[in-house]
Amino acid sequence: MAKLTQLADNEVFRAYATYAAIVLLKMMLLSLITVYYRMTRKAVGNPEDTASFGKGDDAKKYLRTDADVERVRRNHLNDLENIVPFVGIGLLYALSGPELSTALLHFRIFTGARILHTFAYLIPLPQPSRGFSWAVGYAMTISMAFKVLKTVLLL
Known about the structure:
Elements: H1 4-9, H2 11-41, H3 57-60, H4 67-95, H5 100-122, H6 129-152
């Protein structure tokens, strides 16, 4: 079994760790953006959160949905649906011994596609920009999964 120091010396694993950290931080940033939108739009999702804006019936008006908040939340959910599989499959892929150049291509394209997807969602850019960026990132994850299965298939 490989020691952790061996993984740290593996360029593909280091590339994976770098790009996984970037997309995970981007996903975490969406949590902060959600909070920002909730506070600036004064739209909270839970009754106990209305206390920040006052008391009683006056505060209840802030317990509502807001289109901008919901857009950020949908973007965050989409990140969860795509970045979590990337992190798992990307790790298996990095450990399957791919060429560094091929691995970097997968990791960079996925990361760029997810960043573009966020901009397309939040600005919003006209379709098909958001759909295309989603599909490109998804294709990178599928490609890595196929390579893992092809390399280590033990069915």
